[in-house]
Amino acid sequence: MCGRARCTLNPGQVAQACRLADGGGDASSIPTLQMDRYRPSYNVSPGAYLPVVAARKEAKGSGEGREAPVIHCMKWGLVPSFTKKTEKPDHFKMFNARSESIKEKASFRRLIPTNRCLVAVEGFYEWKKDGSRKQPYYIHFKDHRPLVFAALYDSWVNSEGEILHTFTILTTRSSTALQWLHDRMPVILGNKGSIDVWLEKSTPKLEAVLGPYEDSDLVWYPVTTAVGKPSFDGPECIKEIKLKSTGENPMSKFFAKKKVDKSQSEPEHKKSSNEFPQTDAFGSVKDEPDAEETEELTKEEKNGKSDHFAPPKGETIGPDVCGIKREFEEMATNSISQTETAIVLPASPVKKGKSVKSTGDRQASLLSYFGKR
Prior knowledge:
Blueprint: E1 4-7, H1 11-17, E2 32-33, E3 41-44, E4 49-57, E5 67-76, E6 96-98, H2 106-109, E7 116-121, E8 123-130, E9 133-141, E10 147-157, E11 163-173, E12 184-186, H3 192-199, E13 218-222, H4 250-274, H5 291-303, H6 319-322, H7 324-344, H8 348-357, H9 362-372
Parallel strand pairs: 2-5, 5-11, 6-11
Antiparallel strand pairs: 1-3, 1-8, 4-5, 4-7, 7-10, 8-9, 9-13, 10-11, 11-12
């Protein structure tokens, strides 16, 4: 599908792109029609006027029956000639035509023998779908030469008698290199041979030039999503942008950090658990939980529903489990008392000395004084 393009070419550049001057002629001498309607744009959409190369019969006296190319400004979006005069034309309805089925549909089949034309642009846009998001890409030749598309045109007369010339761009299956982007692409005529085959009305076999363009000189890069607005125009449309990496998002980084912090605190838990005898309540806890368990634990902690240390169903919580903190305090108290005892034992002779001295206290000396008297 081709629904947006860039075309800022003048008539001479269009003639050169379509190889109209390869025979030694002057590209600027190619006759033009209604070029005053043409507005160069970096963001052309259906309904806009573009220069189209078609073969027309020359005027009488200059060579009867001979056809010569002409650059005619036409509106993008085919309006078949059999459309009712009172009907409002819809240029988005047939701005593309599938090359595989142009011989089957009446709107296109009758145009193949006499109404083939060429459309020259500098590049076109295609959107890559990524869920609800669509990222546009600008596709062009590496050497920046114009692309030439195969197209069909028609003429329609409205209720006021005005003749409107419109065209549709042919599409084909996507090339091997562009299948990741879209399943369709415009029919690109990459050389003079394919251009002549399409433009010459006497050619019976056209399938050979209607396949995908497979050469490696067709390149692309991402551009701003503002291209999606037809009113957005100018060089900013084709400015390359850098896409943000979608591999990681801030939320995933946040939870990854939490898992790292959990793993850092794990050695401390192991150290405290090794100090005490392991009870049945802790028997099901692994020493080193794997990544999935850590992630699950993190989610449970975040929701405030973590039961990682809950006892099995149907079992009551005994004093061995409930008293872990108490056992810790008792052990801590016992260790402290043992330490004090270890300190006091060496100093026991000093205490005996103090007890001897205690006879010299007031009470002891008073009794001894009255005893002596």
